[in-house]
Design brief:
Blueprint: H1 8-11, H2 14-36, E1 45-49, H3 55-63, E2 68-73, H4 76-85, E3 93-97, E4 110-116, H5 125-135, E5 136-145, E6 152-153, H6 159-176, H7 186-192, E7 196-206, H8 212-233, H9 238-253, E8 260-269
Parallel strand pairs: 1-2, 1-4, 2-3, 4-5
Antiparallel strand pairs: 5-8, 6-8, 7-8
Helix pairs in contact: 2-3, 2-8, 6-9, 8-9
Length: about 270
């Protein structure tokens, strides 16, 4: 499956564990209210596709205390960590190895299907969205965090930072066959599959709503995991990519500066007719 997982090395690195922890702390406090709007309750079945270390799988299990939650990921190491960290929620929360291109579950199984921070890292995002729809029940909801790297904004004036997000994502995506702007395309993917009540909301990770140190931790983890592949797949050298991240981290930690990451949350309901 290596051709379908071009960021495998980054996903297996220690920096990704830090990324997922910090992103959950930054995003879930705002995201939880969006999930609550679906009006789901009772003995639900929930799938977290591409669950990583189970940071959000566990939060969903706590949010819905009667739910059965399954986290699926292609990589064994994050799953082992997820099982260890969230053992207190077993067996109601469980984890399984599998590809989100071919989920190891039956059609129309889940009341809520979640896929977070995954679609921008893989090719053929539309195929994955189609697979997520397959396993969602009629009347059930799909909930996607589809990152878009045109939605990070930092103060101008640092030559490394100014060019980094303007040029880097397009080059990186073209080289890896991924859509690093999938956040703005996910709405179309859901509508093409006939979903109803399709919405696009935003979690705002900025230096007003989120603790600066949490935001800085996300950027540090990205730096540690992605400087090398950025140097491989874009015009930026390792030193230039490092300087760009250091500039961003500096802006976030400076109490006189403002920075923001707009995180698209795209959702839709499978028609009750199937």
């Amino acid at each position: 499956m290596s051709d379908l997982n071009p960021q495998r090395d980054q996903m297996e690195s220690e920096s990704m564990v830090r990324t997922l922890e910090a992103q959950a702390r930054a995003i879930w406090p705002q995201e939880e209210a969006l999930v609550a709007r679906y009006g789901l309750k009772g003995a639900l079945r929930v799938l977290d596709a591409g669950c990583g270390t189970g940071e959000i799988s566990s939060r969903i299990a706590r949010m819905f205390p009667l739910a059965e939650v399954l986290g699926v990921d292609i990589l064994d190491a994050p799953l082992e960590l997820a099982r260890e960290r969230h053992a207190s929620l077993a067996p109601r929360l469980s984890f399984a190895q599998g590809s989100i291109f071919e989920l190891p579950v039956a059609d129309a199984t889940y009341d809520l299907t979640v896929c977070r921070h995954v679609l921008q890292s893989i090719p053929h995002a539309d195929q994955v969205v189609r697979e997520l729809r397959r396993v969602t029940k009629p009347g059930g909801w799909m909930h996607l965090i589809a990152e878009d790297y045109g939605m990070l904004h930092f103060p101008t004036g640092d030559r490394h930072v100014d060019a980094f997000w303007r040029e880097g994502p397009a080059s990186f995506g073209a080289a890896t066959g991924t859509d690093l702007f999938v956040g703005r395309h996910a709405f179309g993917h859901l509508r093409a599959l006939g979903l109803e009540e399709v919405t696009v909301e935003y979690v705002v990770v900025d230096t007003v709503r989120v603790e600066r140190e949490i935001f800085a931790t996300i950027l540090e983890a990205w730096r540690d995991g992605y400087v090398e592949p950025i140097a491989k797949y874009s015009r930026f050298t390792r030193e230039e990519a490092t300087a760009a991240f250091e500039g961003m981290i500096g802006f976030v930690r400076d109490p006189a500066r403002y920075a923001v990451w707009m995180v698209p949350v795209v959702a839709g309901r499978v028609p009750r007719g199937g």
